[in-house]
Amino acid sequence: MFVAPARTRPMATCLLRQIRCASTTTTNTGRPFSSQQLQHVAPPSAAGYPNEHLYTEENFTALKVAHEAWLMRQQAAAVDDEEVIGSAAPANIAREMNMAEAAMMLPNPDVDKILILVRHGEAGHNVFERDYMASGRTGVAGFDKECPQDPLLSSKGMGQVLNLSRTVDTYCNSHTQFFPELFVVSPLRRATQTALMAFPRYAPGHTLRNTKWICNKDVSERSNGYYSDISAPPQALADEFPGIDYSLYRDTYDPVNDVTGPLELEETKHDLVKKTGKFLSWVKEREERVIVVSSHSYWLQAFNDCALNFEDGGAIQGAPYKNGEMRAVALKWT
Question: How would you classify the pairing of strands 290-295 and 212-215?
């Protein structure tokens, strides 16, 4: 169990009281961090990939089953294809936890990675969608050409993210030694702004720790064709957010020239799932152990449901991420 330094301030003492029942070797239910994994039962409709516009827990369950079946078919046919190999998430055991438990998990040698997963706060397109529905307009707000492209956070969204920063200060400090070592952000500005505001002490180029910040397109989403998901060019983002490494994004950037829409889908839901597996493989090869990922609701749900193998269902696993929500996951490679 984590032991606080001798000179422990009152806040650290309260923190230890809050998590005194947590263990570095057991789950919330008292079971060891072992090879137990969830068993997914294929629903009758899982023969193909769900085509429904809306994402639901049932859709993602069917999507996971269908994706695994696709991988098995490709592997059985001995398809030596980079797309197939790269889309298979590395075998893992995942445990969902809150930030207090994540801080306690840090000394556990059985934990290979701790991911802090964040959904961006409310942004301009969320406000547009709300006003669109309130006005009685029909259709999908995200397909409307007036929908803001790559918007920043709204005032409400900034308030949500500032609340996250207080949580970060409580659990990521010199008493817990629980410090993020890498930040991975989506190319969309609302996700980058969220990470910068939620973790201000780790802003690129402004900390003694010199924490790395990388933009990775594999944590973004474009499976609905919304205007709000059109990202800015890499150089424009690099000018706006200095200190963030956009080299990976430059290598994969594909400009959208026709924005008179509705847009053609850049990716299918199947593509979205493949991106989560590719991203987890990238994470596995990184040397950093505590990694913050700032992304979007559909990507986060696909990542949780399809790339991670949780050893128990958890209280919120499978539930969509709310705006400005943060969760932690401990990973062990198997």
Answer: unpaired
Contacts of 278 (CB under 8 A, 6+ apart): 86, 87, 218
Q: Kindly indicate the confidence band of residue 193, based on its pLDDT and cuts at 50, 70 and 90.
A: very high
Residue with token string 């959904």: 119
Q: What is the dihedral of CA 302, 304, 307, 308, to 10 degrees?
A: -170
pLDDT computed for residue 80 by the predictor:
57
Half-sphere exposure in the Cβ direction for 203 (13 Å, CA): 11
| Mean pLDDT of the residues in the chain | 76
CB-CB neighbours of 172 under 10 Å: 22
C-alpha gyration radius of the chain: 20
Coil, helix or strand for 96?
strand
Please compute, for residue 330, the number of CA atoms within 13 A of its CA located in the half-sphere on the CB side. Answer: 27
Q: How far apart are CA 124 and CA 112, in angstroms?
A: 37
Backbone phi, psi, residue 58, to 5°: -65, -40
Closest CA to 145 of 258, 268, 267, 265: 258
Structural contact between residues 267 and 87, judged by C-beta atoms closer than 8 angstroms:
no
- For residues 207-212, average pLDDT: 81
| Residue 258 exposed, middle or buried by CB count within 10 Å (0-12, 13-18, 19+) | exposed
Cβ-proximal residues to 120 (8 Å cutoff; 6+ apart), any chain:
153, 157, 161, 186, 188, 190, 191, 193, 194, 294, 295, 296, 323, 324
Number of neighbours of residue 86 by Cβ within 10 angstroms: 16
Instruction: Give the number of other CB atoms < 10 A from CB of residue 65.
Output: 19
Q: Are 122 and 153 in contact (CB under 8 A)?
A: yes
What's the CA gap between 66 and 57, in Å, rounded? Answer: 14
**For the CA atoms of 212, 213, 218, 224, what is the dihedral angle to 10 degrees?**
160
- Looking at residue 140, what DSSP letter applies? -
Whether 34 contacts 93, CB under 8 Å = yes
318 or 283: which carries more pLDDT confidence? 283
DSSP 307: I
Query: Is-above-0.90 flag for pTM?
Result: no
